[in-house]
Amino acid sequence: MNLQLALDRLTKEECLRIIDETRESIDWIEVGTSVIKEYGMAFVREVKKAYPEKVIVTDMKTMDAGGHEAIQAFEAGADITTVMALSSDLTISDMMKVAKEYNTRIMVDLLEVSNPERIKELEKLGVDLVSLHIGKDKQREGKFDVSHFALVEDFPFEVTVAGGIDLGTLPDVLEKAPNTVIVGSAITKAEKPGEVAAEMKRLMNEFANKN
Ligand SMILES: O=C([C@H](O)CO)[C@H](O)[C@H](O)COP(=O)(O)O
Fold this sequence. Notes:
Elements: E1 2-7, H1 12-22, E2 28-31, H2 33-39, H3 41-50, E3 55-62, H4 66-75, E4 80-84, H5 89-102, E5 105-109, H6 116-125, E6 129-133, E7 158-162, H7 170-175, E8 180-183, H8 185-188, H9 193-210
Parallel strand pairs: 1-2, 1-8, 2-3, 3-4, 4-5, 5-6, 6-7, 7-8
Helix pairs in contact: 1-9, 4-5
The site of the ligand O=C([C@H](O)CO)[C@H](O)[C@H](O)COP(=O)(O)O has 18 residues, from helix 2, strand 8 and helix 8.
């Protein structure tokens, strides 16, 4: 099970400091949408160069022009880039075509998707990696909870989860055995990010060893 560190609403210097403090505990590094908007693909290149051993996820949240944005992400060194499930099938399939050429992956973000029909369509498109996600704004009405797993439980997807997950909610999330847990603020806003990430990874390893 992977721990993905999500870097959002931070300066470059803060991102690099937090990666450095958490590097022993994290598996995947997400250059968040807000960081990409601030610094562009140049910063993705910088992170990949500094941490070639980590899986780099660019949270592009692509909604259109999928082929172009996938090339931008993969040329910058991303191993995985995100597209919104609510975008056109053509956007998603164009990105999957590019990912095949680069030997990389597309993560489909299920933000605001609750209709099982859309999930079936994604499966038909050949999607294999999805993100169950409660967005930052929506978190004001409630953070990610395990009832959201129901949307994908009958599908063969690799599942990542995000949406305000912290040390309090992690144990319940782990019971559903997602492939990757995405954590942003609970680590990045912590006084000691390294300690929070280490404790999260310890709980994840403990769960994996028991199951
Ligand atoms: O994708 C994200 C969000 O939409 C802001 O861009 C975050 O990376 C994701 O939600 C994880 O962050 P937290 O919710 O702060 O754990």
